[in-house]
What we know:
Layout: E1 2-5, E2 18-20, H1 23-30, E3 36-38, H2 41-73, E4 76-81, H3 95-104, E5 114-115, E6 124-133, E7 136-146
Parallel strand pairs: 4-7
Antiparallel strand pairs: 1-2, 1-3, 5-6, 6-7
Amino acid sequence: MEVILLSDQRHLGQRGEVKKVRDGFARNFLIPQGLALIATPGNRKYFEEQRNKIDARHMRERDAAAAIAAQLGELKISIAKKVGETETLYGSVTASEIGEAMESKGFTVDRRKIDLAGGIKTLGDHTVRVDLHPEVIAEVTVSVVPDQS
């Protein structure tokens, strides 16, 4: 099925492109989420008419994400984890834990937007990417410390 993308998708394409995707992906994810339209002649015409509104909305979202990214760049999160005798972690730090720590600091971020790039499995400071918008990526410093309890 061919669809018109209404917003940038990291692994699929840019806003306004016509892409061929599997029927189920389009019906069950892209269209219900408002990320795409079926590429019919009527929808193509509608998209071209609405392009300025979509571009303006996209710019507002990007500017809001950039403002949040500036605040997140200064944020330092500390997460306490249990460690063994040789200073190795039991398990690893998860995106959910980072999301909860960010929420306690006043920032609500979906855990799926937190990119751990292989996970955090050691003590110390680590830089974690947060994809706020397709064009805006924030970096948060996560400090993993031993749990004293």
